[in-house]
Amino acid sequence: MNQNSNPVDRETVIAEFAALREEILQRSNHQWNIFALQLTATGVVFSFALSNPSHAGILLILPVITYALAGRYVFQGFYIDKIAMYIREVLDVKMNGELYWEAWQRIQAHPPRTLTWLDPLLFIFPGVSGIALASAAPYVWASSNTSAGGRVLIVIIWCIGIAATALSFQLIESYSKRLSATRS
Question: Model-level pTM greater than 0.90?
Answer without folding.
Answer: no
